[in-house]
Amino acid sequence: MPAYTTILTALAPIFLVMAAGGLAQRRGLLSDDLETGMMKLVLIILAPCLIFTKIAGNPSLERVGLAVWSIASGLVLILVGYAVAYGAARLFGLRHGHGLRTFTISAGIQNYGFMALPVVVELWPDDPGPAGLIFVHGLGVEIALWTVGMWIISGHGAPSWKMLVNGPFIAVVASLTLNYTGGHALIPDVFRRAMAMLGDCSIPMSLFMIGATIGRLFERQFLGEMARIAFASILVRLVAIPAIILTAVSLLPLPLELKKVLIVQAGMPAAVFPIVMARLYGGHPQTAIQVVLATTLASVITAPLVIALGLSWLG
Asked: At what angle do helices 128-144 and 47-55 cross, to 10 degrees?
């Protein structure tokens, strides 16, 4: 397997920043209002600035076909992930009203944005394509989350288009439009530099807040109850689904930039946001927390292995 130490080096700072966020929350340094304000700041200002700097003017993202492949792969692979997670949940005895729907969403979707991006940048610092594609690919993930995911978690909910059309979504669509029309060339350089400065803040702040969210929702009593959920979620999120993604990378005629993104996505643990969805839409928050805790801790070991394996397949 190539570059294992390089991958581990790329991942280590991510886990350390998340750990710092969790420790800060557990020590009482983050109030509810401060956490909410920081998350809004990331979603409304910092993340759109980062997306703009990674996509607008990116020569690798001037092809419509690449964007279509990226969005479609994000959508389809998450739907496949839901199916695998649902089957595993039934196999491990989860039932409706006791974590089945929440496990399906939580284990079926990976931490596809701010945790994956630093790894992509570290592994391919001279190739801007994969970094920009992280967010284009994320459009497909968001569509799967707010349509089929919403229906699964609520049992009856309609697609939440209002939640889908958020700051990052608008930034991706606007940036791609500028690329395809040539409008990105008209943007003043001073404006680009200002957005780059703001965007650079989004990754560490987002990772810090992911750790803080895990720290806030972590309770000791969950540890004694999570063995079954932990095993099932690791099997689904860190073994079965990565195998499916890497097989798709190996067999499908995907653009090289997208293959790089998917290899990194394959190694990511479960996303944190399904915890919020479970709280808001009648799910089982405890199950979501257990899935996130188990897969995040295990991914310290599994993520470098999965990504290294994918790179070896890619050659």
From this structure: 130
